[in-house]
Amino acid sequence: MRIPKHLAVIPDGNRRWAEDNGMTRDRGYHSGLNPGVEVFKLCQKHGIEELTFYGFTADNTKRPTIQRLAFTKACIDAVELLTKEDAELLVIGNTDSKMFPEELKPFTNTRKKFGKGGTKVNFLVNYDWKWDINNLNNEEKKAINPIELLKSKDISRVDLIIRWGGRRRLSGFLPLQAVYSDFFIVDDYWPDFSPDHFISALDWYNVQDITLGG
Amino acid sequence: MRIPKHLAVIPDGNRRWAEDNGMTRDRGYHSGLNPGVEVFKLCQKHGIEELTFYGFTADNTKRPTIQRLAFTKACIDAVELLTKEDAELLVIGNTDSKMFPEELKPFTNTRKKFGKGGTKVNFLVNYDWKWDINNLNNEEKKAINPIELLKSKDISRVDLIIRWGGRRRLSGFLPLQAVYSDFFIVDDYWPDFSPDHFISALDWYNVQDITLGG
């Protein structure tokens, strides 16, 4: 079976899940923590080498403050949970902004190994594709691979993106690493994660004809 | 009904269609010409202001020569057909390469109006996302909107992408203009185009919650 080397997760639908379950919209993010750990463990089990979570973006910070505080806390908690695993963590995002949580700054400069390491995990926090791309402006040298000049250069090309919550869009997710990614949509909301979603995505990926644009 | 301002078409599946119809794989592209004109006319009818066709990429030119010649000819023929319509045409792609057809060079520097003009049509020919992005390296000024520094800067942000041929990937399509695009997949091959595909895509787009990353 062909396994993606690098899987990305867009964990959407937290606010709609909260509403459907009789809560205010800010209350869904917390229920996305266990799914994140489950996905991590499934990646370990299936030999996926790199996993990227789309935490939150600069665009998302325009949401009501109560939501922003909730999703920011959820990202901090998620990274904390991953530090208890055998993982190599890197957080990427615009740290010059007040929207970037102090607690996660220690994870941003270099990838840090926890436990026995192994699976690389990237967490996008206060990510902004315009901020990421603008680094190309600052470099005097061209690169054969433009990804090398991005702020997100330590995140490699993505093979498979799984998006929960039913939307069929990238929402600004790593435009250059996603150029050839296969895209699998789960209509269920992220807090309603089930391992079946993950397995279906891998089964589907296995039968795609991967041509890298050729 | 909410209509996309800018629609992009990825007309894939020509080679599989040819095989399914008992022809060699290079023979499908020619049957993609009428669908292109039909899509153009549907855009006029529905008030879509800008339409982008994904012709071929630098990656595609690695295919067997007989296929490359066939899809190149199909793009030349398609642009020629569109010059008979009320359209404002622009061809974008790497003209420094031998892979770029001479016949289309007159369409590349500025948008040209045909008939009464109206619908803007962009045709990507020998397009290469790395070539497009590398222009950011050459500019000394930053731009608030990085799209302004691309080689493809005259192509605006895309609202809706319809991809025929069943693949769920962008295949290097305009990474920065596609950051927030909604993505509708038609499993049928492009030469099996039907107006129903187009209408289904518009109906689906109409019920999407457009947040531009918010």
Task: Please give the structural blueprint.
2 copies of one chain form a homodimer.
Chain A (H helix, E strand, L loop, with lengths): L5 E6 L2 H7 L12 H14 L3 E8 L7 H18 L4 E6 L19 E3 L4 E9 L1 H5 L1 H4 L21 E5 L17 E5 L8 H12 L8
Parallel strand pairs in A: 1-2, 1-6, 2-5, 3-5, 6-7
Antiparallel strand pairs in A: 3-4
Helix pairs in contact in A: 2-3
Shape of chain A: globular
Strand order of the largest sheet of chain A: 4-3-5-2-1-6-7
Q: Average pLDDT of chain A, to the nearest integer? A: 95
Structural class of chain A: alpha/beta
Biggest beta sheet summary of chain A: 7 strands, mixed
* CATH fold label of chain A: Undecaprenyl pyrophosphate synthetase
**How many separate domains make up the residues of chain A?**
1
CATH homologous superfamily title of chain A? Decaprenyl diphosphate synthase-like
In quaternary terms, these chains amount to homodimer
Give the C-alpha Rg of chain A.
Answer: 17 Å
CATH class of chain A: Alpha Beta
Question: How many helical stretches of chain A?
Answer: 6
Largest interface: A-B, 41 and 41 residues
Q: How many E-type strands of chain A? A: 7
Strand content of the residues of chain A, in percent?
15-25%
Order of helices and strands of chain A: EHHEHEEEHHEEH
Give the name of the CATH architecture of chain A: 3-Layer(aba) Sandwich
Distance between the amino and carboxyl termini of chain A: 22 Å
Helicity range of chain A: 25-40%
> Which spans of chain A have pLDDT < 50 for at least 5 consecutive residues?
none
GO biological process, one term (chains A, B): polyprenol biosynthetic process
Family (chains A, B): Belongs to the UPP synthase family. Z-FPP synthase subfamily.
Keywords (chains A, B): Transferase
Protein name (chains A, B): Ditrans,polycis-undecaprenyl-diphosphate synthase ((2E,6E)-farnesyl-diphosphate specific)
